[in-house]
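2024-03-11 09:14:02 INFO worker-7 job=invfold-0412 stage=load source=structure_tokens
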């Protein structure tokens, strides 16, 4: 059953205006309606401030967008705005990227969608020459991020209702740990407590 469901999902890099519109709507649902990170609007759509520089990895179930995440390697990162002199906390000599805007529709958070998107993301980042990634990981999902190879490098940031911990990982380490998780998923072993929560 798990394997059939994994095949049904299409994991790809977003490349059409229709997909970008769906991304903006899921962005709104996640980071306005679920997590109070941004103010609401009458359109039900939220265009990320780095949209034109983002590469989006998305998960489709038929025509429906069920998950997304974004990556970019241009500075300033979103964490540059939250942490003065961010570079002092990061390893020197690395080609850095920031992974953001993880959003998965609630009914798909207990399954393989995150890990399939992460696999595609790792492949893309390594192909682009990145070797170290940073995220703002929700305080409620630290066990998951540790399993993926991410380690905190700064105390939590954010605001009430939307606190996150700056974390970083070697992309090779991340890829290896992710491979182990996907192997377990391929055997039908879903870790039920990983009810995937967003990060921005």
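2024-03-11 09:14:09 INFO worker-7 stage=emit residues=200
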């Amino acid at each position: 059953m798990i394997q059939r469901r994994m095949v049904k999902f299409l994991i790809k890099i977003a490349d059409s205006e229709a997909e970008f519109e769906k991304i903006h709507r899921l962005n709104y649902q996640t980071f306005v309606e679920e997590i109070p990170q941004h103010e609401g609007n009458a359109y039900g759509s939220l265009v990320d401030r780095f949209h034109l520089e983002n590469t989006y990895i998305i998960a489709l179930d038929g025509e429906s967008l069920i998950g997304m995440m974004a990556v970019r390697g241009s500075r300033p990162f979103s964490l540059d705005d939250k942490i003065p002199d961010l570079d002092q906390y990061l390893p020197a000599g690395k080609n850095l990227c920031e992974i953001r805007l993880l959003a998965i529709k609630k009914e798909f958070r207990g399954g393989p969608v995150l890990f399939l998107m992460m696999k595609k993301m790792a492949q893309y980042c390594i192909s682009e020459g990145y070797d170290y990634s940073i995220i703002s990981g929700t305080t409620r999902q630290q066990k998951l991020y540790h399993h993926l190879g991410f380690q905190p490098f700064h105390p939590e940031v954010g605001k009430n209702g939307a606190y996150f911990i700056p974390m970083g990982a070697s992309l090779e380490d991340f890829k290896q740990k992710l491979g182990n998780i996907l192997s377990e998923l391929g055997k039908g072993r879903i870790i039920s407590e990983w009810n995937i929560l967003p990060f921005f």
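2024-03-11 09:14:09 INFO worker-7 stage=report msg="Residues 2-186 form a domain with the Aminopeptidase fold (CATH 3.40.630.30)."
2024-03-11 09:14:10 INFO worker-7 job finished
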